[in-house]
Design goal:
Layout lengths: L5 E4 L2 H7 L2 H10 L7 E2 L5 H9 L2 E5 L18 E5 L10 H6 L3 E4 L1 H21 L1 H11 L17 E6 L3 H10 L4 E6 L5 H6 L3 E2 L2 H7 L2 E4 L13 H6 L5 E4 L8 H9 L4 E4 L19 E3 L11 H16 L7 E2 L1 H7 L3
Helix pairs in contact: 2-12, 5-7
């Protein structure tokens, strides 16, 4: 069987971070690909010729966007496999490729595990208010009254709210199952029965915000969700509650969040912000009740190899004439368009 021709398109530094030697060898066996050639731009003759010859675009973070002007030179393209969450991010007009029968896959599922693990850790720590207590302990250098100072804390029978049954949201729900927690879920695409199968009780968003000791955000960024966690919903959160955001910064009204955090009434764990990183003068850098991490919940270090293995798995499936394990609907991606 003739191997399909493929080309890499991403930040060149990403190749060795994502694909170990075994993965690169598998990729070369499955496809006719020069793994030393990585398209970081599409303006040179060499890059455009490589794109024109490719049947599979193996893309990743910082991939150059295939624009309308490139369409006439992508007639051979049949598949896009993306080492990240949304393959359509490297296509200016995903629907145009979908109309031509181009199929896509992404490594979102492979990346969901680390995000879910980070989220679980932060939920369990937040319910004990560990980070705030660490600061208090360091400052006071005295033992607290364990029987009087910690009323309402801990993970036993606490209420945790999950916003969005996305790939990551579902992974978080699965990790929460062993714990004695009351888990609420808001997702307008699910029925109550579907939520129960995920181990949660489906509720309206306002009820979730008002009832949860920890609210963890996992909804996609779309025009409908942008700024949806606004001042009114933040005000619903109980005193001492924690907001965890590993989704996208813009699903939260940033000015409203800072105003609420400024009061000290709630805490926040923010792996994403809008903008990212926050402006140098943002109060998010200095507020004591904020844990701010640099978008590290997802795969990093050795975890990136899981993404590389997932990408090679998909290329092998395509080369063998089998369907993708984790397909992406390019037409649907084109309709939402904000990620």
């Amino acid at each position: 069987m003739t191997r399909p021709r493929a080309v890499l398109a991403m930040n060149p530094r990403l190749v060795r971070a994502v694909f170990d030697e075994d993965a690169l060898a598998r990729l070369r066996r499955a496809a006719d690909i020069d793994t030393e050639l990585v398209l970081g731009e599409l303006d040179s003759t060499r890059s455009r010729d490589a794109l024109a010859a490719a049947e599979i675009l193996v893309a990743g973070w910082d991939a150059p966007v295939v624009r309308a002007e490139h369409l006439p030179r992508t007639e051979r393209l049949r598949a896009v496999v993306y080492a990240g969450g949304v393959a359509a991010t490297c296509l200016e007009d995903p629907a145009a490729f979908a109309d031509r029968g181009v199929v896509a896959a992404n490594a979102r599922t492979a990346n969901s595990g680390p995000v879910a693990e980070y989220t679980l850790a932060m939920i369990l720590l937040a319910n004990k208010r560990v980070l705030a207590e660490e600061r208090r302990y360091r400052a006071s250098r005295t033992r607290p009254d364990h029987f009087g100072a910690y009323a309402g804390r801990g993970n036993y029978r606490q209420t945790v709210g999950i916003v969005g049954a996305s790939t990551v949201g579902r992974a978080v729900l699965a990790l929460l199952r062993p714990f004695d927690l009351d888990v609420l879920l808001h997702d307008p695409t699910l029925t109550a029965e579907q939520a129960r199968t995920l181990g949660a009780r489906l509720v309206p968003l306002d009820e979730l915000m008002a009832s949860s000791r920890v609210v963890s955000l996992h909804q996609p960024l779309t025009p409908a969700t942008r700024g949806g966690i606004d001042a009114g919903r933040l005000a619903l959160m109980p005193d001492g509650a924690t907001l965890v955001n590993t989704a996208r910064g813009a699903v939260v009204d940033q000015e409203a969040l800072i105003a609420e955090l400024r009061t000290g009434r709630i805490d926040a764990v923010l792996d994403v912000t809008d903008p990212e990183p926050p402006d140098p003068g943002s109060e998010l850098w200095t507020l004591d009740n904020v844990v701010l991490t640099p978008h590290l919940a997802g795969s990093l270090g050795g975890e990136l190899h899981r993404l590389g293995d997932a990408v090679v798995d998909e290329v092998e499936r395509f080369a063998a004439g089998r369907p993708f394990a984790h397909p992406e609907d390019l037409a649907a991606s084109a309709r939402t368009r904000v990620w």
